[in-house]
Amino acid sequence: MASPTPAAANPKKAQAVPGSPGPGGGQAGVMAGTGASGSAGNARANMRRTSLLVFFAAVLLLLALLSLAVGSKHIELAVLWQALLDPNDSADHAIIRDSRFPRAVLGILAGSALGIAGALVQSMTRNALAEPGILGVNAGASLAIVIAVGTFGINGFNGYVWFAFGGAVLATGAVYLVGMAGARSSDPVRLVLAGVALGAVLSGIGTALALVHPSAFDQLRAWTIGSLEGRSADVLAPLGIAVLVGFVLAGFTGRSLNALALGDDTALALGYKVGRARVLILLAVTVLAGAATAAVGAISFLGLMAPHLARRFSGPDARWMLAYTAVLAPIILLLADVLGRVVIPGELEAGVVCAFVGAPVLIMLARRKKPVAV
């Protein structure tokens, strides 16, 4: 009696791939089925991510409206809609038009910029605890403010905001030059070390000069806290342009960030130019963090919190993570600003509220048993 063939002996194995085209078609059928199911799974995941992103965008819009209504003077919803659609010269409409609306727009622009800058820095350095301040942005901006007030006698936010932006840009450029001096390739560890070292030097110089000029010290202290209050609408257009440029640069880095997450050797093997990608990322961080920091001050922890929160919804894909961060970061900043108006009589600055929220997040990250993937 002839022994049965393997297919006959194991009917389930023979029918593992329905529709296999004869001998040799089983493996191809498995691969085709896996590819089809994988594509369907990716499509469902992208649909979920898109739906959730739209939901967070709606939350951001509602928070912006809440920011217009909440303050030392409560404004009814009907008055708010009238101020937005058919404004007049009444006192309530003037408050919304001249103070709260620019404040809400500033929170959205600056929050998105600081969040994206933090996400880029974390991805570039592969350090889950990194934020834009490690590249000398805050130190350069604060030193420029002290020089503007103490040396040139410039007072008021509208006067020294441009010095702050220039100082942030120059400091970040110096960090890159020092970190890459004598190196054949861009090393994120060297960049971080150069940023921490130069940041400490610039902060020390700025503090020494501020102690010599009391007026400069007062201006620096008010700026360092970080706030959306008291900012002029004149900064919105330049900040919007800077944020747009930074977003375009960040958009070009999406695929590079995914490759850099695998390591430099793997990224090079995949055909990515690691050095060029890091320069592009650094340019985006400089524009975004420099402009936002100059506009609202040194708001701590926002560039750290928002990317980590975004990764919980976006997964490992850096492109989705950047999109989520651009929406979640302004939600955090506007929420901190609104809470600061109501938690105590008077007003608590948004930078202080962000620090209260961000400090526990940093402690939680430091106590994690497993490192956070970036």
From TrEMBL:
The chain crosses the membrane at residues 52-71, 104-121, 133-154, 160-179, 191-215, 235-258, 279-306, 318-336, 348-366. It is a multi-pass membrane protein. Keywords: Cell membrane, Membrane, Transmembrane, Transmembrane helix, Transport. CDD domains: TM_ABC_iron-siderophores_like. Pfam families: FecCD. Its main location: membrane. Residues 1-33 are annotated as: Disordered. InterPro entries: ABC_BtuC-like (IPR037294), ABC_transptr_permease_BtuC (IPR000522). It is found in: Cell membrane. PANTHER family: FE(3+) DICITRATE TRANSPORT SYSTEM PERMEASE PROTEIN FECC-RELATED, FERRIC ENTEROBACTIN TRANSPORT SYSTEM PERMEASE PROTEIN. Belongs to the binding-protein-dependent transport system permease family. FecCD subfamily. This is Iron complex transport system permease protein. It comes from Paeniglutamicibacter psychrophenolicus.
